[in-house]
User: What shape does this take?
Amino acid sequence: IEELTSHLPALQPQSSSNSSVESSNSTETSSPPVKRKPRLSFQGGAKRALLKWVQTTATKRLGLDVKDFGPSWRTGVAFHAVIFALQPHLVNMERVWRRPNRENLEEAFSLAEKELGIPRLLDPE
Assistant: This one.
């Protein structure tokens, strides 16, 4: 995530007017434009932002505690929770809670690939 988003520019509010263009064409001398701090930035916080989304959207209402992108995902339940948040009809969370980790991981990766078009990048092993 960090690698992919490090190349993205910070998002800055876009003005609907051409005032900056008009002022640059002006013959008046004015002070240099003030740099505004971007409201949103992908750099340095993409992993944290994704983890926060998972925590608030996908796992909190299911009573699942996801603290990181490591051990919190080993059971496969967090992967199913994300799929459930996106497409609830695809996942039976009661069944997920009772199954072995390997089965959960295999099903989550298969569902993500077949139903959501997310390429399988991990193996349950």
Summary: Confidence is low (pLDDT under 50) at residues 11-27. The first helix runs from residue 2 to 5. The chain has six helices and no strands. The helical segments are 2-5, 19-24, 46-59, 77-86, 93-98, 101-116.
